Amino acid sequence: MAKRKDFLNQFLASHSVPEDALEHFGANDFTNEFLSLPSYRVVPAYGRILKESGEDYFFSRTINTPSTIPHMVTLQLKDVRTLKESDRRMLKPYQGHKEVVKPPENPDTIVLIHLARPGVDGHPSVIHGGVTCAIFDETIGSCVMLHHEAASGARDTLFTATLSVNFRARTQTPNDVVVKCWLEGRQGRKWKARGLMIDRNGLVLAEAEGLWMETRESGKL
User: Fold this and answer.
1) From CA 165, how far away is CA 42, in angstroms rounded?
2) What is the torsion angle, in degrees rounded to the nearest 10, for the CA atoms of residue 197, residue 37, residue 39 and residue 187?
3) How far apart are alpha carbons 107 and 60 in whole angstroms?
4) How many degrees, rounded to 5, is the angle at CA 199 between CA 127 and CA 37?
5) Please, are residues 211 and 162 in contact by the beta-carbon 8 Å criterion?
6) Which neighbouring-strand residues pair with 160?
7) Measured between alpha carbons, how far is residue 104 from residues 63, 180, 184, 196, 202 in Å?
8) Whole-angstrom Cα distance, residue 61 to residue 46?
């Protein structure tokens, strides 16, 4: 598998944030507050653009409709500092969280998402849990990719190895939610990161942690 270098910066340089998404989130006091944060830059969501290879079809087409997730914008911390190699114990998953893990004051990425209906509903006007998992896989994975890009030298493709999600409250639709993501540790080909989803009242709807792996030359994890 061919290694890619600087592909994320190239993507950001050649794509812009959809104006309708900026208009939607700018009209909402809750999400507009994030758009105004001086320590972040607003960038297009990587997975919302269909690639020539067919990559990212799910987020760019399948759930990019008026009845699913019509708007999605990423805020990227301007001063992202990639972590050095971590102690192996840092990569072990946490078990049985009784309390929500507190995010850093400035998480690496903040993703604004508009959940429409009924296309993402499980129960009426409540998002399907599988969609929540997919959102975490996409948003936390993009956060890892940001650090992956900043690491020295060309890097291989990343794949999700594990993803654990805790559901804290029902996520109503339609709704605007915010997903905060940050890297927790890395060692060799392994990258561990976390994320949490909140609503306009600051209520944590769900949280997740996962491990991402660089592929081997053979393409295996």
Assistant:
1) 26
2) 0
3) 24
4) 130
5) yes
6) 212
7) 29, 9, 10, 11, 15
8) 13
Distance (Å, rounded) from C-alpha 174 to C-alpha 176?
7
Tokens of residue 39, six digits: 């320590």
Give the integer Cα–Cα distance in Å for 10 and 131. 29
Q: Is the pLDDT of residue 181 over 60?
A: yes
Q: What is the pLDDT of residues 10-19, one digit of tens each?
A: 888 889 999 9
Note the pTM of the prediction, 2 decimals: 0.91
φ and ψ of 70, to 5 deg: -75, -20
Question: What domains can you pick out in the chain, each with its CATH number?
Answer: 7-83+101-214 (3.10.129.10)
Q: Kindly tell me if the per-residue pLDDT of 103 is higher than 70.
A: yes
pLDDT band at residue 213, thresholds of 50, 70 and 90?
very high
* 3-state class (DSSP) for residue 16: coil
pLDDT tens digits, 18-57: 999 999 999 999 999 999 999 999 999 999 999 999 999 9
| DSSP calls for 186-221 | EETTEEEEEEEEE-TT--EEEEEEEEEEEPPTTS--
Tell me if 216 sits within 8 A of 161, measured CB to CB.
no
